[in-house]
Every structure is written in structure tokens, then in C-alpha cells.
């Protein structure tokens, strides 16, 4: 082997990437996306209307605040409610297991919109009874009904996440804790939960994203969330850009949350990486 | 006030026939959307599984957009967007024409793109579960790329993706409830009309909810049958 060929082997000339069929198709599709985004930007510039903006920008902001508040409150309340449901799903008692199973099946097997309607409009059927017992003030407000429906709905999903995460921890961890003389609550708090929550983080993140997305349906029961303000703005102005702006805001929020969850997951699993 | 039994009877007095018509609309919408969403989802998954970075990026943009938007907003974007777009095109020819976009087709397209963005993720993870050797085996016995996909990869892909796809079918069935917001006479809209006319909202929304629950139960029985059939073919392989 001569010296020249070894030098050639050591420093290969980078080959130009061939224009395969895939590359042509991919470039064309990317071009299509670029055209769509350019058209969207051009449309938004052409349709720019300072009057519309100054009228609805504060409404959109307060709508976004309403959406966030709804999601935060019902996710937290749902997290609390999910604990007994998850316990019921794992209980030895068949009655508790059956009831928890029905709870989860009902709220995951029917549309959230139907549940919301059932609570908000359905409460009207019992207005007399509710007034008698002083509960009418609660069900009269669309906001309260939305919170109730979303809390019940997410409690079923979160119970399944919690159950899956706890069951993902090997049985030996329970046995080890028992052999050290820890009782059940101590075991859960000090041994099981720290491991289960790492598993549960990603599903919880997905659940919050799903909640933000499905919270748009409360606009249909007159709650002025981001979607509600958008519908109002569209019905007043008949300007389609109102929906485009809402879409951009929702996308930004969801993507920020998704990347946030990714970041947290990377941080809390550092000790597992090699 | 009429009794609940009269209200729930079949015919001009009762509302059961109207609500079952809604159930028919809901089920046909879901059934019409399923092949559309699965087909688009499969091709998006092919793009995301490709070795070509431009194809992967194009696929990822699609998923990011339609998985990040609320389903209700996607529906409104397509329904009103198509209406506004077609209207402004038609105005160039006939200024007095009024365009009404079909809400069934809008619902089908909107639910289809949402379904496809989730289905592409399910297909993608199934693609990744199939070892490279399967492709190499296909090529080594002289099959073309298309034949390898159809005869070797696809049968395994469907088996792996089935549980995820079954879940997406249930989600699709629940998401159809949103089309009541654009005026399609599905279960929820028919129940809403009945509730307003009879002033019995709990009865009719409760019935609607139970019908959705029934559809979910029927679906999970059907899914189990399909899974058993697919599992059997695996056993005899």
C-alpha cells in the first residue's frame, strides 16, 4: 500500500448527497409547507386591521387566562380526586374495584362535550331541588359546571396514569420496604412514589396538553375562554384571521408545554443515564 | 307535562327516532373518517420513518400542527376557512352566490387530519419495532421495495399497531361529538334539540351520553374480536 492511498483513506472527500426520489419528494413537500406559511403570513399582513387588533387583543389575553385557570384548577382538583379512584382500581375489595372501573370507563368512554352539557344543561332539570338545597348558585354558573365536568373527566384519566405508574414499580421494592419495617403510607411516600412519578411525568404532561386542547369546548357553554373570545370576535367581524390568531396562540402554548415537559424529564432522569 | 316514556317513544310523539338518526350520523361520520385518517397517517409515518431528513421534517411539521391545535378549533378552521376561501373564489365569477360548505365533509376532513396526526405516531413506533432484517430478507429474495412493504412489513406492522389504532378509534368516536357545533345532526345536537323543545335536558343529554357509552362498549367488543382474529393468524404462522 502506497503512502498516497492511505492519505486518501484517512481523508475521504465528502460525497455529494444524491437527488434520490425521497429527497425530491421531501424537498417538494417542504416547499409546499413553506408556501403555506408564506401565504399565511402574507394573508395576516394583508388583513392586518389595527382597529380589530386593539379591540380584541385584550379579550384574547383574558381568554387565554381563563383557559389556563380552568386547566390548572381542574387538573389539580382532578389529581386529588384521582387518588381514591386509583386506589379503588388496585384494591382487593371487589366492590371498590368495580365502582372505580365504572367511574373510569364512564368518563373515558363518553365525550367530554356530552358530559359538560349533561352537567350544565342537565342541572336545569333539577333546578327546584337544587334551589331547595342551596346548590343552585353553583350550577347556575357555566364556569362552575365547566370546572366540575373537567375535574371529573380528568380524574378518570389521571387515576389510570397513577395506577400505571405505581404498578410499573417492581414488587421487590414493596417487599424491601416491608422488610425494613416501613408501613404502607411510608412505603408509598418514600419508596414507590419517587420512582413512579418519573414514569408518570410524560403521561401527566400529555394529559395537561389534552386538557388545554379539550378546554376549547367550554366555549360552547358560554364560558369566555380563548376559544369563546375567538368565536365572539369572528361572529362580530366575520374576519377569518380571528381563528388564525387563536390557532397560533394555542400552538405556541402547547408546544411550550411539550418542550417544558421534555426538559423536566431530561433533568430528573439524569441519574439513570450513562 | 308528558311522561318520560312518551318522550322516549319511537314516532311523532317521542324523540327516540330522532336521536337514533343522530346516532346513525355519528357512526357514519366516524366510519367515513377512519380510512381517510389511517391512510394519511400511514403516509405521514412513512415520511417520518424515512432516512431522508427533508421528508422527516415535512412529516413532523404536519404532526406538530394538527396534534397541537384543539380539535374544535381545527374543525372551525376547516369549516369557516373553506367557506371563506371558496366564497372569495366564487365571488370573482358570480358576485351574488352564497356558498354553504357541507358540514359532514368538513367534519370528516377535520377529524381525519387530527386522527392521521395521532395515527402517524402509532404507525411510526410500529415501524421502529420491525427489525431491519425483515427488509433485508425481503430484498434478498428478490422482492421490490413496494412488494417488501406489502408482503413482509405491512402484515407485521398492522399487528403491532392494532392496540394503538383501536384506542384512536375510541378517541375518534368521542371527537365526533364536536361536529354538533357546526350544525351536523349528530347524537348530541339531536339531544340538544329534544332537550330544548321538551324542557327535559337531563333526560336527553343523559340518553345521549349513554348512547356514546354503548357505542364505546360495542367498539371494545369489536376490537377484541379483531385482535383475536389477528392473534390467531400469528399463532398459525
The domain tally of chain B reads: 1
Give the CA-CA distance, first to last residue of chain A. Answer: 41 Å
Overall mean pLDDT of chain A stands at 90
Q: Look up the CATH topology of chain B.
A: MetI-like fold
Q: How much β-strand is present in the residues of chain A?
A: under 5%
The interface involving the most residues is between: A-B, 49 and 50 residues
For this structure, the CATH topology of chain A is MetI-like fold
Q: Output the structural class of chain A.
A: mainly alpha
List the uncertain runs of chain B.
Answer: none
Q: Which CATH architecture of chain A is right?
A: Orthogonal Bundle
According to CATH, the homologous superfamily of chain A is: MetI-like
Give Rg of chain B in angstroms: 22 Å
Shape of chain B: flat
CATH superfamily of chain B: MetI-like
Q: How many helical stretches of chain A? A: 12
Molecular structure report:
The complex is a heterodimer of chains A (274) and B (237). Chain A has 274 residues and is mostly helical. Chain A has a single domain, classed as Orthogonal Bundle (MetI-like fold). Helix content of chain A is 79%, strand content 0%. Chain A contains twelve helices and no strands. In chain A, helix 3 packs across helix 8, helix 8 crosses helix 10 and helix 9 runs antiparallel to helix 10. Chain A starts with a helix and ends in a 6-residue tail after the last helix. The model of chain A has no long low-confidence stretch (mean pLDDT 90). With 237 residues, chain B is mainly α. Chain B has a single domain, classed as MetI-like (MetI-like fold, Orthogonal Bundle). In chain B, helix 2 packs across helix 5, helix 3 packs across helix 5 and helix 7 packs antiparallel against helix 9. At the A-B interface, helix 2, helix 4, helix 5, helix 10 and helix 11 of A face helix 3, helix 4, helix 7, helix 8 and helix 9 of B.
